């Protein structure tokens, strides 16, 4: 049966026409579902090490091994360094002139970020870390601190390979370093807006070099941006900059931080400790300082001078002019003496930069080196920034910036402020020795900032004003108790005073503050354990003004002012103006008569007006002034005390006699006729109006209103208004003619009164402590204007000159518009 069936089937099939067979096959093929080819497995993104880091790779071992393969850059990260704290510091290495307006230069830091490298699945992440909020990991609240301070991810990298022993992870970092990553960019959002930056031009941007060292990695990027309004060469519509990216591994064992105290001046960092036993989070401030630990702790504890384990070393920029190098080194090493007070010898050292032969890898941008940078810039300044560990405040590197033209500022002020009593200053060609001494002190001042010290504006009030005329005193003590004050020159000494030191120098406060911040305290194993010793050192000096710290922010404290010297502003400014009058008389003789052009005379005359303004400003601060003396509750006296009434009255009388009087000597017509064809009176009107407005400022009036309740006999806001009116308008009471200078000043007075009637405090500290509209200010202004109007109405009829009469009539109309606005 089976055989028959098969045969029959074959026979029948053979009888079917070929055409039908073909048609049937087509229909069958058409209706048949063909199985897809087996799915090809995707090639793994993680490849064998040898396929990524090929035999052609250029490798540099260090913190991470850096590989360059063709045009790509790879980091080979030891897994043991994942989750370790590192600092990523971005700096400008090269830049076009005037980028950022003059205070941005080669070496300027643009960002500083604490980072960790973390693995997440098949990626490596750069996480930004913060120590603003902390709690010990052993405490339950640390879970909440981490949850409520989640760290942002700066960048994510695919893992491309593992080392053959699986101990290292390889990632491609090319994109991170050759694209416009904003957080490490040299162009701020403000710059991008100002220069109309469109985008990074990738065709003109590239990684220059990438080097790895034992503790850090240095990357140099060349970036070119398309910008519609670049700072230079506008037609090119291009900004090219070179960036240096430094990444350094922070110490495995952080330095023990030291708690700050307002009574000693230090730059600080803040932390909120949620692990505190207090009923709230505990805000802590730590000082920023270098890590100095004695090599021989036993000898140190005995009081012997001991070298630190790691001294502070500053290198001189190779671009520094040779003749200035010794003065810069002296300025750096002037701090050796204060460090000896703290128990360390050779704690800070100045060195020349190594040559290419000595160290081919040396770079001022390398975060391993602290450098005194010499910047080719017309900016007149110097600054002392530093980089610190945000966990503890440990300073790990700093670059002091010296701008080329800064010495010109010092030469000019040396001439203007000391020229009357100091014959050697009466020249445009100040000797190299004197200029070098000035530079030395400026470098020492900026290094002081880099060591952690802010300005101490109270140090210049430590000495009696008359002592500045004593040669022996000035040679021993200089002109302030601290180099960190803005006390640059002795402008008090008078012609005939002998053996005077005119230039600042290190002072006793610098030794005191260095000891307080840097002395190693044995057996104090926590910041809190150090506090009793630190308090003891402060209390030993309490009450001695030589060791007082005066904050730069104390704009209301006449004992903490910038650019002043002496403990009596009225007396010091009187001496200063007397000297300045001598200089004004001889200025052409010392400048244009020598050079046969007016360029230097014009520059110095304008700066002389600034000097005049500083002397006046020192007096103004006494009116409505409040003394600030940082104290703890266990010390006697108040922190804030109003300047005595008699001192404020003296200041007001001084201003009327010197600042608001007609400036017959400083507006020197013979000089001005050679400098400009117009604007003689306007220059001085503008300066006088500035100080008039300062006396009648909302902030000052607010403090004077408060003074009424602090003490019934204090100088009051009404006293200021009354005394200002009587002094500014004294011609109206005396029936005297009013000069053009005084007419300008009197109109400025009316304009200021209108401002006080109409304006409000826009922002800032005064708005925190009083409401102008609800205070006595408007009532006092209205009352004073009514009194003044009555006075001018009477004085108008007896005016001696037509100009005076018209001036009084105009002033009455202006007052009417203020009191009865249309």
Topology diagram in text:
Blueprint: H1 2-15, H2 18-31, H3 49-52, E1 58-60, E2 65-69, E3 72-78, E4 86-94, E5 109-120, E6 123-129, E7 133-134, H4 141-147, E8 153-162, E9 168-172, H5 174-178, H6 189-194, E10 197-200, E11 206-212, E12 216-227, E13 238-249, E14 268-273, E15 282-287, E16 289-290, H7 297-301, E17 312-316, H8 325-333, H9 336-341, E18 348-352, E19 370-375, E20 382-383, E21 386-388, E22 394-403, H10 406-418, H11 432-450, H12 471-477, H13 508-518, H14 527-541, H15 569-590, H16 592-595, H17 599-620, E23 626-628, E24 640-642, H18 645-659, H19 669-672, H20 680-695, H21 698-710, H22 717-728, H23 730-734, H24 740-758, H25 766-769, H26 777-797, H27 802-819
* Major sheet details: 12 strands, antiparallel
Poorly predicted runs: 1-28
Shape: globular
- Report helical residue fraction: 25-40%
Summed over residues and divided by their number, the pLDDT gives a mean of 89
C-alpha Rg (nearest Å) = 36 Å
Estimate what percentage of residues fall within beta strands: 15-25%
β-strand number: 24
Q: Roughly how many Å apart are the termini?
A: 127 Å
Structural class by secondary-structure content = alpha+beta
> What's the tally of helices?
27
Describe it:
This protein is of the alpha+beta class. The chain has a domain at 56-249. 38% of the residues lie in helices and 18% in strands. It contains 27 helices and 24 strands. The strands form four sheets. Strands 1, 2, 3, 4, 5, 6, 8, 9, 10, 11, 12 and 13 form a twelve-stranded antiparallel beta sheet that branches. Strands 16, 17, 18, 19, 20, 21 and 22 form a seven-stranded mixed beta sheet that branches. A three-stranded mixed beta sheet has the order 7-14-15, with no helix packed on it. Helix 10 (406-418) crosses helix 17. It is globular. The termini are far apart.
């Amino acid at each position: 049966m089976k055989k028959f069936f098969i045969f029959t089937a074959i026979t029948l099939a053979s009888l079917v026409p070929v055409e039908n067979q073909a048609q049937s096959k087509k229909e069958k093929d058409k209706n048949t579902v063909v199985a897809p080819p087996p799915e090809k497995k995707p090639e793994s993104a993680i490849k064998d090490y040898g396929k990524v880091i090929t035999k052609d790779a250029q490798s540099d071992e260090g913190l991470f091994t850096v590989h360059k393969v063709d045009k790509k850059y790879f980091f080979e990260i030891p897994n043991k360094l994942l989750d370790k704290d590192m600092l990523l510091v971005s700096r400008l290495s090269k830049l076009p002139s005037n980028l950022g307006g003059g205070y941005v230069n080669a070496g300027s830091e643009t960002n500083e970020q604490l980072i960790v490298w973390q693995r997440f699945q098949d990626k490596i992440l750069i996480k930004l870390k913060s120590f603003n909020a902390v709690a010990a990991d052993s405490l339950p609240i640390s879970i909440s601190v981490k949850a409520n301070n989640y760290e942002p991810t700066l960048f994510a990298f695919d893992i491309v390979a593992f080392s053959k022993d699986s101990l290292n992870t390889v990632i491609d970092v090319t994109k991170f370093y050759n694209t416009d990553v904003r957080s490490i960019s040299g162009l701020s959002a403000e710059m991008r807006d100002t220069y109309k930056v469109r985008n990074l031009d990738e065709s003109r941007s590239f990684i220059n070099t990438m080097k790895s060292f034992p503790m850090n990695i240095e990357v140099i990027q060349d970036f070119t941006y398309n910008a519609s309004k670049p700072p230079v060469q506008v037609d090119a519509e291009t900004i090219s900059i070179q960036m240096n990216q430094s990444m350094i591994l922070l110490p495995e064992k952080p330095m023990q931080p030291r708690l700050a105290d307002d009574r000693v001046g230090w730059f600080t960092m803040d932390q909120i400790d949620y692990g505190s036993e207090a009923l709230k989070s505990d805000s802590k401030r730590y000082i920023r300082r270098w890590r100095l630990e004695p090599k021989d702790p036993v000898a140190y504890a005995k009081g012997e001078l001991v070298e630190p384990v790691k001294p502070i070393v500053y290198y001189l920029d190779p671009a520094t002019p040779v003749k200035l190098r010794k003065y810069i080194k002296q300025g750096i090493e002037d701090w050796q003496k204060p460090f000896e007070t703290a128990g360390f010898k050779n704690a800070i050292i100045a060195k020349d930069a190594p040559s290419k032969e000595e160290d081919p890898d040396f770079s001022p941008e390398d975060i391993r080196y602290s450098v005194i940078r010499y910047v080719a810039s017309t900016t007149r300044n110097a600054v002392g920034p530093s980089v610190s560990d945000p966990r503890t405040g440990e300073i790990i590197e700093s670059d002091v910036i010296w701008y080329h033209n800064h010495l010109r500022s010092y030469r000019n002020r040396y001439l203007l402020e000391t020229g009357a009593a100091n014959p050697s200053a009466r020249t445009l060609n100040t000797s190299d020795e004197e200029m070098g001494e000035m530079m030395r002190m400026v470098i020492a001042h900026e290094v002081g900032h880099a060591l952690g010290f802010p300005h101490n504006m109270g140090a210049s009030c430590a000495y009696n004003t008359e002592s500045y005329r004593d040669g022996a005193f000035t040679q021993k003590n200089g002109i302030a108790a601290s180099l960190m004050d803005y006390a640059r020159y002795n402008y008090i000494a008078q012609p005939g005073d002998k053996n005077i030191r005119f230039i600042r120098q290190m002072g006793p406060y610098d030794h005191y503050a260095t000891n307080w911040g840097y002395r190693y305290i044995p057996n104090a194993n926590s910041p809190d354990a150090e506090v009793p010793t630190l308090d003891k050192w402060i209390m030993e000096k309490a009450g001695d003004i030589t060791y007082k710290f005066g904050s730069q922010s104390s704009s209301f404290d006449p004992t903490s002012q910038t650019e002043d010297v002496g403990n009596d502003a009225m007396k010091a400014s009187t001496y200063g103006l007397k000297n300045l009058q001598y200089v004004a008389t001889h200025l052409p003789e010392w400048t244009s008569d020598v050079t046969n052009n007016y360029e230097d005379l014009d520059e110095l005359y304008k700066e002389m007006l600034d000097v005049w303004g500083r002397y006046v400003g020192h007096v103004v601060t006494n009116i409505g002034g409040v003394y600030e003396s940082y104290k703890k509750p266990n010390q006697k006296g108040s922190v804030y005390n109003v300047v005595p009434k008699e001192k404020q009255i003296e200041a007001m009388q001084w201003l009327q006699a010197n600042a608001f009087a007609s400036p017959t000597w400083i507006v020197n017509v013979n000089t001005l006729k050679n400098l400009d064809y117009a604007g003689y009176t306007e220059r001085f009107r503008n300066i006088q109006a500035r100080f008039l407005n300062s006396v009648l400022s909302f902030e000052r009036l607010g403090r004077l209103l408060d003074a009424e309740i602090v003490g019934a006999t204090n100088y009051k806001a009404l006293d200021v208004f009354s005394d200002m009116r009587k002094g500014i308008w004294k011609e109206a009471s005396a029936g005297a003619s009013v000069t053009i200078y005084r007419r300008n000043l009197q109109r400025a007075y009316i304009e200021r009164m209108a401002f006080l009637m109409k304006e409000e405090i826009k922002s800032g500290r005064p708005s925190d402590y009083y409401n102008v509209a609800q205070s006595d200010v408007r009532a006092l202004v209205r009352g004073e204007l009514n009194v003044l109007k009555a006075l001018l109405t009477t004085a108008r009829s007896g005016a001696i000159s037509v100009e005076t009469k018209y001036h009084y009539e105009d002033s009455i109309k202006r007052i009417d518009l203020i009191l009865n606005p249309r």
